[in-house]
Amino acid sequence: MAILVLAIFFLIANILKRSTLGFYKRAFKRKSVIAGIVSSVIYFFFVLSGVFLALQVLGLERFLSHMLAGAGIVGIVAGFAFKDIASNLFAGLLLKSQNPFDKGDWVEIANNYGFIVEVGWITTKIITVPGQEVFVPNQLIYNTTFKNYSTLHRRRIVLETGVSYGDDLEHVRAVALDEVKSVAGVLADQDMDFYFTSIGGSSYNFQLRFWINFTTNNDYQRAMSDVIIRIKKRFEKENIYIAYPVTTLDFGVKGGVNIFDRPISIQESGSNNPVT
Q: Residue 75 has what pLDDT?
């Protein structure tokens, strides 16, 4: 009877495993790691159920109880030991099924900016801009936000600086937007924005934004360098001054006395006559 019970459950497990794989293949027209895992779980569940029932038929309930208790203790210990590995493995399964990024995509994960080399079951490997290999645990990817810069195949350049108080702000805006059109890789069909953002201690601060084609990080760096050079040259041509902080030195003992309010005396070496 025990052998018969075991054989029946083994047969049911095989039938359900094949049925699960066949159903998934018919529904989604392709094979999948998820289907293999689900079918394996169903298979082992019914096989173990058959083993337990067979042991009960043989009158080995006490042995079965001790075995289950021991398995529970081992499971608890193993659960604590392999908790992180299991979390990373499950996160890796989600990554492979959802595909939030592919090999070669430029991403920022846990403050690591670089391109994807490999999406493994436990970790994801990134090559950063400085050239280091970084292995990010998969569970960390799903526990925090991450950025994929390659999804849209375009990226936005945001340049922030300021001009002096004496410049015509409307003229500054028109010149900056006109010069952006000549930047390498710029997407002319996308919005180009210019906003004055604040009045600083020595400047009117503005933000210039536009979109470029993005394949690698070099595209972004070249466009940023190009727009800085062009804005600087064009502003000089249009007599627009990029503001910078000015420091005033006060030589008065009590303050409020400018250096130009007092005569400056310079005495040459070897001479007793000071020059004012």
A: 60
Alpha carbon distance 229, 232 (integer Å): 5
Q: Contact, 220 vs 185, CB < 8 A?
A: no
Residue 162 tokens read as 């300021």
Which residue, 251, 160, 163, 176, is CA-closest to 204? 163
Joined together, the tokens standing for residue 257 give 């006395």
Which pairs from 23-29 meet CB under 8 Å and 24+ separation? none
d(CA 127, CA 134): 6
Confidence of residue 149 (pLDDT cuts 50, 70, 90): very high
Radius of gyration of the chain (CA): 35
Q: Could you give the CA distance from residue 136 to residue 104 in angstroms, rounded to a whole number?
A: 16
Per residue in 38-69, pLDDT (tens digit) is 777 777 777 777 777 777 777 766 666 666 66
| Listed residue (96, 104, 156) closest to 121, CA to CA | 96
